[in-house]
Write a structure and sequence with these properties.
- Strand 11 and strand 12 form a beta hairpin.
- The chain has a 5-stranded mixed beta sheet, covered by helices on one side. The chain has a 5-stranded mixed beta sheet with strand order 9-8-14-11-12, covered by helices on one side. It has a two-stranded antiparallel sheet with strand order 3-6.
- It has 2 helices and 14 strands.
- The protein starts with 7 loop residues before the first strand and ends with a strand.
- By secondary structure, the chain is mainly β.
């Protein structure tokens, strides 16, 4: 935890529970304060249409404001062409799998074949087509290959 003359306790809300936290604090301290489990990620609510901010589980300094709201959400560890990825949605789209593949240096193509395995009972294995989405679970595997057309 960060210590200084400026440190004081603020009331914040994590998963709708009012808690007292030093300010500033760290991501790691917030996860511990609210007992956030290993396969969950903490987010700071952002007003309006902004994306909520993911809070890293480390010693990054976090500056708080009185009555700020945070929530945790389950994350899933998946593999795309053997590379680990962490996602925080219960479903994944064809486009998102292809984006993860391209972000890891995948080869651009107009069309991709996306196969998956180790999925949940609803969709244990199969092929994901453009515009489709599937439910995910920890350890799910995706294999993306260009169809050879460019």
């Amino acid at each position: 935890m960060l210590e200084s003359a400026e440190t004081h306790l603020l009331r914040i809300h994590i998963n709708r529970e009012a808690l007292k936290s030093p300010n500033p604090t760290t991501g790691e301290a917030l996860y511990a304060l609210a007992d956030i489990k290993k396969h969950e990620k903490l987010y700071r609510e952002i007003a309006g249409n902004g994306e909520d901010e993911a809070i890293p589980r480390d010693d990054t300094p976090i500056h708080l404001t009185q009555d700020q709201h945070f929530y945790s959400q389950k994350v899933f560890d998946i593999l795309v062409n053997g590379d680990d990825h962490e996602i925080d949605t219960k479903e994944i789209t064809y486009a998102r799998v292809v984006d993860l593949y391209l972000g890891q240096g995948g080869k651009p193509s107009n069309e991709y074949l996306v196969k998956y395995s180790h999925g949940p009972v609803e969709n244990p294995s199969g092929t994901l087509a453009p515009g489709q989405k599937v439910k995910v679970k920890d350890g799910m595997r995706f294999r993306v290959a260009g169809t050879g057309e460019s």
